[in-house]
Amino acid sequence: MPIYEYFCPDCRKPYSRLVRTSGIAAPACPACGGSSARRLISAPALAFKQAQEPAPCCGGGACGVGQGSCACAAGLDD
Question: Residue 72: what are its φ and ψ, rounded to 5°?
Answer without folding.
Answer: -65, -45
